[in-house]
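Help wanted!
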Amino acid sequence: MASLQRAPRSRRSIKTWYHSGGLSSIVFVLPLLLTFLYFSWGPIVRGLVLSFQKNNLVTAPEWVGMANFSYVLTDPQLPQAAVNTLYFALLALIFGFPVPLFLAVFISELRSTGWLYNVISYLPAVVPPVAAILLWKFFYDPSGTGVFNAILGWFGLGPFAWLNSPSLAMPAIVLEATWAGAGATSIIYLAALTGVRTELYEAAELDGAGIWSRVWHVTLPQIRGIILIMMLLQLIGTFQVFTEPFLFTGGGPDNATTTILLLIYRYAFINGDFGAATALSVLLAGVLCVLSVVYHLLTRPWSTT
Amino acid sequence: MSQTVQERGIISHADRKRSVIRYGLPAIQVLLFIGVFIAGVGPLLWLLKSGLSTSQDILRGPMQLWPSGIQWANLPNAWTRVQIGSYLGNTAIIAIGSLVSTLFVCTTGAFVLSVLRPKWGPIVTGAVLATLFLPGVISLVPLYLTILKMPVLGVNLQNTFWAVWLPQAAGAFNILVMKRYFDSIPRELIEAARIDGASNLRLFTSLVLPLSKPILGVVALLTVIGSWKDYLWPLLVLPDPRLQPISVALPRVQETTEISLQMSALFLAVLVPVVLFLVFQKQFLRGVGMSGGIKE
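Answered by r_m:
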């Protein structure tokens, strides 16, 4: 608008600016600028500001310095939540990392029936996660007639308390998460495997390498780039896990499955303490940024690029 | 097996002649198939059976192969009493709206950054790229507060679908992927269209967009999957039950309905995406596979 008013004075430069596409650039970039200002850049800045404020939406926000951070860091629930989150990430890495990789390497060896394995193993990823969680919650019924207990009963095992047991609850949640996520991850590995140079297998075989050593020394090194990235993305994802513990156990039993994000949710949407919630979010985000950088530095020797 | 034309894999022809491999490989194949089948199809079959059983059957003998009688009435009951249909409809509205807003923002944005290339372009690209490295958790609470009262505009978007559609569009990943794809369009094509007198709008709609169909498909697929899976965000911004997608509605409904209806509601909620997936499996798996290459 301002440019239209100024037009008579500098018509020439405005005209060249207009003809070189200056105006349409601005029109085209507006949707991006507006959505990012409102829903990305704005909230990030606001999050940093909020973490130094006392804000409950009722009274006017006031600056409180580091009070939110010290409150969050001294909350007796935090160490437990941090340990639980790390435990979830670790279990998810142990269960959830090798399974899709093994599946992908195996499926890539099957010429005619590979697609069938693909479709079937991807099915759990298509089930809406909430529906899957509710279904598994029923499977984990702690009574003797619960689905898993009934199956294990055939072999003389159990019954287990599953989600009601502080020691079994987290592994049970991770098992479901792995089931839900393995298909999608293995599809990504599979796509990467199509780019493996097969003539190297020939060379490895001539050198006397067995099948396992061919997988270990030829296949995996060639897709290490994607493996490293998927591992980092999985770590970042598991550190921010919410839906599974929230719906399976709500953080129980005895806070055995309370994760950092569950704590943030409680601060913000149950206690109405938005300052504490954002302070913890900022801390978690900081930890994840440091983790990404450290991971990047540590894996650089193996990385392809 | 006609392996003469096929490319070799890890296991060579010589390997295949060894008896360990000859008999071991099919055995592993069968075992793995049973494993994958139980994990992938088993729960769905169990859900089908339970969705058609009485509550007593489900609770007393969940692993019985055949229920005492098939309760076809469960399905229409779940459809009308639990209103699965309207929740699925909400899910579809949310997914389609997110898809439209995401594609609109990321194609127009990438068009400016990649094709029009104004002087200030790199600043915007950098600002978009920077958000990619920040984990989503940092903006969860402030984003919620933004929705409650939009800065400057002062409107409350809670309990409108806009609250889900718009934040979805501010994804750095999609914009950068789209920009990278647009970057690969030969500049000569664009210059030729310019010389022919095409306006920027025409350049966008009749040259750049038609050339980017594959990437549009991938971004569309990932957006729909993402919005389909989302739980926490719609839970926060859509407290009105009439607007909730199926993911938010199911846990709430579950508390007040009997187990047999729960199971048939779950079955219907699962059936729609599974059928869609089976129909479009080829495009689907290719799209998801490509997303890995993009991440790299």
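OP: Thanks! One thing I noticed: Chain B touches chain A through 104 residues (CB under 8 Å).
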